[in-house]
Amino acid sequence: MFIPKNISPSASSRSIDWLLFLALLPIMASGLVTMYSFEQGKNASCEQKTVGDETIISEGDECLTEIESPNLFFRKQLVWLFLSLTVFFIGSVIDWKFLRRSDVLLGLFLCGCGLLLLLFFLGTTRGIHGWLDLGVLNIQPVEPVKLILILILAKYFSRRHIEIAHIRHILISGFYAFVLFILVLLQPDFGGALVIAFIWFGMVMLSGISKKHFLTVLLIGALSGLFLWAYVFKDYQKQRLFTFLHPLTDIRGTGYNAYQSMIAVGSGELLGKGVGYGTQSRLQFLPEYETDFIFAAFAEEWGFIGVLLLFLCYAIVIWRILLSAMHGLSNFEILYGLGLAILIMSHFIIHVGMNIGLLPVTGITLPFMSYGGTHTLTLFAGLGILMGMRRYKRTAHKDAIQNEFLGVTAE
Asked: What is the pTM of this model?
């Protein structure tokens, strides 16, 4: 088989970035430990009573019966992580070059749109109509749709990165993102729609947009924001933004979650309260500790030092993703890796920001740490695709790779 000189024929075991994988392990472990310790504390705070032959643990809706397994989120997340890691390793041995085909990506885009439309008829409600109930499990279609958008934009910009100065390419790429953005926003899932917007905006910026067109995009974004505020946003979403601007005006209502989260983060101080001693969660003041506010729950137990170590692990993950991207075989692989980094950073920044009171509460989970099957599976599938692309990475000098991406030819 002919192998071009700029391609490194790596074995499947060598295609995996083990430093990236090792950095993920403490992040996943932190999420599991946080879920386990707080569920233990929650169970301990519940009262038991006997009704007939059944022991019932009762104190509000959050307590569990003996029939329901304790540490429910912990046990389910273990299963999801096992499945996700399996997908990750399988993905690392697949040749993903077929993803460059326009018909494949168009099919994925239409499937994603179809799933989002299906939510309006068959979706189950958990604050938003964002879940499809398949009986044995529930899936959240917005998560794989984010990955599909990254692939589509990588394909589009990889063939037009030199012509990106033309406004039509910004508008056409924006159309793909806009369709998904609207379908997600109407659920209504403002957090998911916001991540989709960040993916498109970040990939457009990295593709070499001109300053004039950048200002045009900002103006369009501002006008779109005004339209959404006037005709799309629900009352509770508007109230969240008001509460974000004035957090102490309604701490017993819409501002309660954000206020309790800030208390939890601040009470961790330097070294934290210790695993299992986070009072905000043990006493059930902090809501959704396993998903939307898992960073606050972690910070309360591990403190500032633990948060720094957690941030270091995320920094290594992003660094390794960017490094893999810049050694991609073509602009498609490069842009895909950059888009994947934008997806993870968007979730990270929004989640941490809303947990410390810098951003409004939008229900965004923390990558690889929060409870959530579809989200975790999607992220590991995305990483598996990236690892698979490393099998045919180039070995050219980094300056040559950068020049090709920017459309600069060597003399």
From this structure: 0.82
